[in-house]
Amino acid sequence: MHHGQTLYEAIGGDATLRRLVDAFYPIVKQNPVIGPLFPDDLRPTMEKQRRFLTQFLGGPPLYSELYGHPMMRARHLPFPITQESADAWLDCMRQALEAIGMEPSLRKLVLERLSGPAYHFVNR
Fold first, then answer.
1. Cβ atoms of 33 and 89 closer than 8 Å
2. Whether the Cβ atoms of residue 57 and residue 7 lie closer than 8 Å to each other
3. Could you tell me which of 62, 45, 52, 50 has the C-alpha nearest to residue 19?
4. Angle, to 10 degrees, between the axis of helix 83-99 and the axis of helix 13-30?
5. Which stretch of DSSP H or E encloses residue 106?
6. CB neighbourhood size of 39 (10 A)
7. Helix (H, G, I), strand (E, B) or coil at 108
8. Mean pLDDT, residues 56-65
């Protein structure tokens, strides 16, 4: 990552996030811990995830423009999220980051950034 560059820019912006989200959800659906938490039609979830990740990693505020403040913990409260689910979600993300061939140092930064919210959502 170059000085002054956001993580969003460093990973390749929108094109990379689209590839990541496309790789991530099939992995999630196969996961016995968190797969059942997701709807059959993943398209709306995938679009929200792409918008959130764009904003969260330093890109344009696509999520807030459409949905308002992310308030992600509140939005996830209806779902039973345990430490095991957070671990599973992060492992699925790790697999997706590897599947799209993201450079290891950037992969590590993305996972570190996402681990805060993942564990913050634990509510059971």
1. no
2. yes
3. 50
4. 130
5. helix 104-120
6. 8
7. helix
8. 94
